[in-house]
Amino acid sequence: MARLEATEAVRRAAGYGHAVLSWIEADGYPVSVAGSFAAAGTSVEVGPVAAELLPAHGQEVCVTFSHIRPQPGVGYDQRRYVNLWGAAEVSEGGHVRVVVERASGWDEADTPFVEYAERNVGAGLSYLSEMGARPRLSAFWRFFLATRVPFLTATLVPVGLAGAVAAYDGGFAFGWWLLALVCAVCAHLGLNIANDLADAEGSDAVNVTPTPFSGGSRVMQYGLVSKSQMLALSLGCYGVTILTGLWLAAARSWWLLVIGVIALVLSVGYSAAPLRLVHRGLGEPVVALGFGPIMAGGAYLAVTQAWSWPVVYASLPIGILIALVLYVNQIPDRIADAQAAKRTLIVRWPKDRVIQAYAIAVAVAMLLILVGPLLGITPWWTLLGLLALPLAVPVLRGMRRSYDAPFGLLGAMGYNILLHLTTGVLLIVGYLVAAVTG
Predict the structure, then answer these.
(1) For 139-429, which CATH class?
(2) High-pLDDT (> 90) share of the chain, %
(3) Please, which pLDDT band fits residue 1 given cuts at 50, 70 and 90?
(4) Which fold has domain 2-110?
(5) Where are the domains of the chain?
(6) Does the global pTM surpass 0.90?
C-alpha cells in the first residue's frame, strides 16, 4: 500500500459511496460499522451511527473506503481503497468526525494487483517471521520454480534438431542422443539457478514487476529457498553436466571437451562476475550461440562422432529466436535492470529501436530457413519452419501497445516463446520427413 497525504486521501475518499468505521474495543474485539459520510479538507465525518455502536471519544479509529467490481468467471477488477486513521470525535446525533493523522491507499488503475502484491512481499515475510512461521511449498514445486523447468524448451529444441539432422544423415543413436540431452538439460537448469543467484542482490531484489516469463524465479525473494540451497542445487546440476560431458567426451569425441568448456564459461559468465556478459549487453549473442550452434553442434557430435556445419547452419534460426525470447522478456525488467547497472540492450535502446531490431532479427531467422534449401545446406522440407512466421505478428503488436505495461506484455511474451518452439518443432519435422522420404 502507498502512504498518502491527508488532503489527497480525503480527496480520494470523497469519490466513494460509503465508509466503514473500524476500531478495537476495550475487550480486544474489533468493531466495524458502515455508514454515509462527508469528506472535506483533512477530515471525514461518518454517521449517523447507532448509539450502541459508537466508539469512545478519542478512540483511534480507521475509516475505510473501498470499491471492487466482480467479473463473473474471471475474478475482479477496478479494485481500489483508501484507509484513514485518527482519533474519533463523537458528537451528538451519532456522528463521528475523524481528523486524518495518517493514510494509505491503492488503486489498481495506478498499480496493477501483481505489482501491489510484489511491493508488499517484504512486509508479508516480516509478519510471518514475527509469528514464527515461514512460507511453505512442496519440494517438487520448489524445485520446479527454482529451476524454471518450463523454459527447458530452449534446450529440447536444439538437441531435438541435432537428433533429427543425425537421423537425416543416417547416423542417429538414441542412447547417445539421450545422454547428450541429459547433459544439456542439467546445464540449462544450472544456468537458470546461477542466474538467479547472480541477480539476487541486484536486479531481482528491486524488481516489482516480475511476470511468469521474467524477473527470475523469485523463490529466494519469497523465502521459499535459501541462497545456500540454490547454490547447492546449481552445483549439483553443473556436476551432472560435467560428469555426463566427460563420459561423452571419452566415449565419442574429445572435441566435446572443448565445446563443453566453452559452453560452461559462457553459462557461468552470462551473469556472474567477472564476465557478467548480460550486463554488458551481450546476453542475446551468448544465448543465441549457446542454445543454437553450441548445443546443436555438440549434441550432433555426441550422437554421430562427427562435426557438421549443416547442423550449425540449421540451428542458427532457433538460436536467434531463443535470443529474442530473452530480448522481449527483458522489457518488463528494464527499470530494475537499469537500477542494478544491468545494461541490457533493452536498457540501452529506446522503444522504437527495440521493436525494429526484433522485426529485423525475426526476418533474418526466417531468411536463413528460406535460403538453406536454395543453397543445398538443408532439405526442402525445412521450409515448414516458415509457417511459424505469423506468430511474430502478435509479438510486435504487443510490444507496440504494451511496452510500458509489464503485465500487458504477457500475451506477447507467450507468443514469442511459441514462435521459437513452433519453428524448432517444424524444422525437426522437416528433417524427419526428409529422412523418411529420402
Answers:
(1) mainly alpha
(2) 80
(3) low
(4) Pnp Oxidase; Chain A (2.30.110)
(5) 2-110, 139-429
(6) no
